[in-house]
Amino acid sequence: MRERIREILSKKPSDDILTVEGWVRTKRDSKNVCFLEINDGSCLKGIQAVVDKASFSNNNLLDSITTGAAVVARGRLVESLGGNQAVELETSGIEIVGPCPQDYPLQKKRHTVEFLREKAHLRARTNLFGAVTRVRNTMSYAIHSFFQENGFIYVNTPLITASDCEGAGEQFQVTTLDIENPPRLKDGSIDYSKDFFGRMAKLTVSGQLDGETYAMAMKNIYTFGPTFRAENSNTTRHLAEFWMVEPEMAFCDLEGDMEVAESFLKYVFKKVLDERSEDMAFFDSFVQKGVVGTLEHVITSPFEHMTYTEAIKRLEKENDRFEFPVHWGSDIQSEHERYLTEEIAKRPVIVTDYPKEIKAFYMMLNEDGRTVRGMDVLAPRLGEIIGGSEREWRLDILENRMKELGLKPEDYWWYLDLRRYGSVPHAGFGLGFERAVQYVTGMGNIRDVIPYPRYVKSAEF
Ligand code: 4AD
Ligand code: MG
Fold it and tell me: 319: helix, coil or strand?
């Protein structure tokens, strides 16, 4: 493997002839010298290649090097005279591998994120999206390291499923039937026994239910994969296809679940600060002032804890400032989440023990019979980044909850089997990966922290 610019930049000047491969970000010409900034995505700042025109026989070649062109440059690494970099390439040879004509959309100026979203196939070549891509990568790796270091087994749960984990009816259907002329039963309804899977199938909204079956054998497991939601939410925090991290732990209660969630987030944030300081300084200067300091603070201070009932009491006092005033029983919406985290706690808040009516069927019922052992981790700016719970592990209570909600227990027979055969208290949570990337980078729109966002009316690229 050829060295990347990041490794080259960490070297000392020497007489060795090095090879630099990358794309030209900028070109500055003076009478005698030409400066090229070459970037290969390995770090924020590219390398400066300096070409002495007098010693260069082919000046036509230099003229045809434009912003966006792919080049291979050779030369010695020398101490840089300019103040912006320690070393630069004293270029002795250069080759254009892929020329780039003048209609290249990423010319040297600051483009808006909206403009770049329409050029998503090229946007990774900008400083901003390069930095997002590297931080996202570091976070993925940190997620795996955290769980691997703590004895969790990585399990791949299916993306195609016949069950609705969250029971919210927000699933995309998967079918090979001719939708213009589907086979029908006598009563006119569609005959799904003729469909590919012999039944109606959907894209999963969460790997949790399958994850639980593996936790009941392997103790601690996690999933990390794509999930899909056909929510008609046109917000800066919702995608139709997003990545979710879902640990599940047997012999674990809600307290244990919250401890893991908190140390997990802190571990991931710390890895980014340690390993991506250059990119984080960039986000701090150009995207979200103070984001580095905030993360440093979050890593070293405990999260705030509050029950739903306490949270509602605090929020009710401020009801006149909310678009949707709250009372006990109402859902905590994004404006309330922001108030709790930004005004009251000034850090992440874990809210627990929600009314059963506003949470999913699988959450463990408290003794009061009205609330469930669920928890949401709320973050300033974003609101909910994690949703989790202790699971209802008692068969009779779980079956009752399902019936109350109009779910058919026979559709979930295998899930209920877990409560028949060696059931134990267990708990888990789901982290919305893109929301976590948004939190770390300070990026305002979730559509800009995933390479190719899928959302309402948009599946380009
Ligand atoms: O709170 P949710 O719906 O929880 C579950 O799916 C559970 N089965 C998780 C578990 O206990 N194993 O989703 C979990 C997280 C949310 O907190 C949010 O961060 C993210 O997934 N999320 C979304 N992210 C982007 N776009 C969307 N449309 C999202 N919906 C949820
Ligand atoms: Mg949730």
Answer: helix
Cα–Cα distance for residue pair 385/457, rounded to 1 Å: 24
Identify the residue whose C-alpha is closest to ligand 1 atom 2: 387
Q: Give the C-alpha separation, 445 to 238, whole Å.
A: 9
- Tell whether ligand 1 has an atom less than 6 A from the beta carbon of residue 374: no
Task: Give tens-digit pLDDT for 31-55.
Answer: 899 999 999 999 999 999 999 998 8
Query: Which 3 state secondary structure label does DSSP give 177?
Result: coil
User: Is the C-beta atom of 363 inside 6 A of ligand 1?
Assistant: no
Q: Is the CB of 435 under 6 A from ligand 1?
A: yes
Structure tokens at 8: 């080259």
Is 199 strand, coil or helix? coil
Q: How many angstroms does the Cα of residue 449 sit away from the middle of ligand 1? A: 16
- Rounded CA separation 192/178 (Å): 11
Question: What is the whole-number distance in angstroms between the Cα of residue 361 and the centre of ligand 2?
Answer: 13
Chain position carrying tokens 């809600």: 254
Q: Is 39 close to ligand 1, i.e. is its CB under 6 Å away?
A: no
pLDDT tens track for 127-186 = 999 999 999 999 999 999 999 999 999 999 999 999 888 887 799 999 999 999 999 999
Nearest in space to 142 (alpha carbons), one of 274, 271, 300: 271
Tokens of 311: 């949270």
pTM score, whole prediction = 0.97
- Identify which of 435, 388, 375, 381 has the alpha carbon closest to the alpha carbon of residue 243: 435
Whole-angstrom distance, CA of residue 178 vs CA of residue 181: 5
